């Protein structure tokens, strides 16, 4: 606002590419004859130093004469030069007052002249009530700065005026109507009814705060976020609140960053929450924000990415993050061990597959079965052998003893092989003598007439084989914790 009149001067001469406009040579004579506009032009000429030495004192003299002749433009110019001081014109607020008042009364640039008149009066120690009357006049005539001056004076109790929120409110509302963000913010915040002493009106408060936020009042954005996320008469709308807080944070109001990040975390928008929380963690050293950044980082980039933020939170005294770091260390150690075991398992499984392949290529199905069961406890290779024997019509080449327990072993995940094993087992009459490898000791399939000692022997071998297989799977076959199950 304080450079307003300089702008007007530039506009006046903008159509003239070189030198002064036509007729400028007559300004002196015309001014002496009482032409207010010619006096005004001479003031601008001397102020800018156009084809004459720059002389602010002469400029203000011509502006005063023009003002006395009734040109309100010149009144504003003279007031502006005294208000700010310019080159060889000293600042003199008391001298500025009558010129701004004249411009204000003439409604010339009332959006500024009344405001400056009131400011000059306050600055020169004039009667505050008279200054507020001038500000009121400017506010009524559409000067938002006059409205905010009056609102601020009553709101904060400035210049010897007692605080009076009720008197400040209509000025703030008027300023808001004139598109002043601060006015909307004050009016809306007063109606939140927190500490303003005014009765709460939630819907109207939000309306005013929302408008102020649109006009880039960051504090209003923050308060609007509070209004829609505090569980008051407006309910809880975390989505909407997070937008308000995010705008305030992005505009530079750091106090809103934590709220934006926290709500986006609650909403499950971890990638959006992370930059807000890391900002507060880094800049304000807030342990809780660091922890929440860690929680978000897990969802965005995985457990390892969360370590930095939880570690920092722990260093800032956040105990839950300290506990988390300990668990993360344990988890990563176990994960590393699982990877080692998995590599060992895969190596052993390949070894088993190679040995079984060799025996199958030789047609030695029985030895292949022994390797798969006794040496490796691999259901996968057992199933492979059964299917290969079935395809080759060689199921009888496998010792019948294996069929007595493989049915249970293959029951869960290898149904096709299991069906073949069941068929072969059922071919064995109850009490039939079978051999185990090269041992001719009698072993019987299960049945009511089977001696218990022989069945116990078979059952023990079955249990031992199962335990070996289970141990192999637990060490690496399935790190997630699933394991071989028996019926």
List keywords for this structure.
mainly alpha; 24 helices; 2 strands; rod-shaped
Order of helices and strands: HHHHHHHHHHHHHHHHHHHHHHHEEH
Give the count of helical stretches.
24
| Proportion of strand residues | under 5%
Please list the strands of the largest sheet in the order they lie side by side. 1-2
Rg from alpha-carbon coordinates = 46 Å
User: Percent range for helical residues?
Assistant: 55-70%
Mean pLDDT: 83
Separation, N- and C-terminal Cα atoms? 87 Å
Structural class: mainly alpha
How is the main sheet built? 2 strands, antiparallel
Number of strands: 2
Stretches with pLDDT under 50, minimum 5 residues:
1-18, 432-455, 477-487
Explain the overall architecture:
The chain is mainly α. The chain has a domain at 334-477. 69% of the residues lie in helices and 2% in strands. The protein has 24 helices and two strands. The protein has helices at residues 4-13, 27-32, 36-48, 56-68, 72-84, 93-105, 110-123, 128-140, 144-156, 165-177, 181-190, 202-214, 218-227, 238-250, 255-266, 270-284, 287-301, 303-315, 319-361, 365-375, 379-392, 400-409, 415-426, 452-477; strands at 434-436, 439-443. The protein has a two-stranded antiparallel sheet. A hairpin with a 2-residue loop joins strand 1 (434-436) and strand 2 (439-443). Helix 8 (128-140) packs across helix 9 (144-156) and helix 19 (319-361) runs antiparallel to helix 20 (365-375). The protein is rod-shaped and about 140 Å long. The model is unreliable at 1-18, 432-455 and 477-487 (pLDDT under 50).
């Amino acid at each position: 606002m304080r450079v307003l009149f300089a702008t007007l001067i530039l506009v006046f001469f903008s159509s003239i590419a070189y030198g002064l406009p036509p007729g400028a040579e007559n300004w002196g004579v015309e001014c002496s004859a009482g032409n207010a506009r010619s006096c005004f032009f001479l003031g601008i000429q001397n102020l800018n130093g156009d084809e004459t030495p720059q002389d602010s004192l002469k400029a203000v003299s011509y502006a005063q004469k023009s003002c006395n002749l009734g040109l309100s433009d010149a009144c504003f110019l003279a007031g502006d030069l005294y208000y700010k001081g310019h080159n060889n014109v000293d600042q003199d607020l008391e001298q500025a007052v009558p010129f701004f008042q004249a411009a204000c009364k003439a409604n010339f640039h009332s959006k500024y002249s009344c405001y400056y008149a009131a400011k000059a009066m306050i600055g020169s120690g004039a009667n505050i009530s008279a200054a507020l009357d001038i500000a009121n006049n400017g506010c009524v005539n559409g000067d938002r700065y006059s409205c905010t001056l009056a609102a601020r004076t009553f709101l904060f109790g400035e210049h010897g005026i007692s605080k009076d929120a009720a008197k400040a409110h209509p000025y703030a509302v008027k300023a808001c109507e004139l598109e002043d963000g601060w006015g909307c913010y004050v009016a809306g915040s007063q109606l939140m009814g927190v500490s303003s002493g005014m009765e709460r009106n939630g819907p109207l408060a939000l309306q005013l705060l929302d408008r102020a936020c649109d006009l880039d009042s960051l504090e209003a954005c923050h308060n609007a976020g509070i209004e829609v996320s505090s569980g008051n008469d407006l309910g809880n709308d975390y989505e909407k609140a997070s937008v308000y807080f995010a705008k305030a944070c992005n505009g530079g109001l750091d106090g809103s960053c934590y709220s934006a990040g926290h709500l986006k975390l609650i909403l499950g928008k971890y990638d959006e929450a992370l930059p807000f929380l890391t900002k507060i963690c880094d800049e304000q050293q807030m342990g809780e924000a660091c922890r929440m950044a860690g929680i978000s980082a897990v969802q965005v980039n995985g457990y390892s990415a969360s370590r930095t933020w939880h570690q920092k939170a722990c260093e800032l005294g956040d105990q839950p993050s300290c506990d988390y770091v300990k668990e993360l260390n344990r988890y990563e150690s176990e994960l590393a061990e699982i990877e080692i075991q998995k590599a060992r398992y895969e190596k052993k499984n390949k070894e088993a597959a190679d040995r079984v392949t060799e025996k199958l290529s030789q047609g030695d199905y029985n030895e292949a079965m022994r390797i798969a069961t006794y040496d490796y406890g691999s259901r996968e290779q057992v199933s492979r052998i059964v299917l290969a024997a079935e395809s080759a019509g060689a199921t009888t080449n496998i010792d019948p003893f294996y069929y007595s327990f493989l049915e249970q072993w293959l029951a869960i995940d290898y149904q096709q092989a299991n069906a073949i094993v069941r068929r072969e087992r059922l071919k064995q009459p109850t009490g039939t003598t079978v051999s185990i490898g090269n041992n001719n000791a009698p072993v019987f399939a299960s049945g009511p007439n089977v001696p218990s000692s022989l069945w116990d022997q078979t059952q023990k071998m079955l249990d031992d084989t199962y335990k070996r297989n289970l141990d192999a799977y637990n060490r690496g076959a399935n790190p997630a914790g699933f394991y071989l199950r028996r019926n």
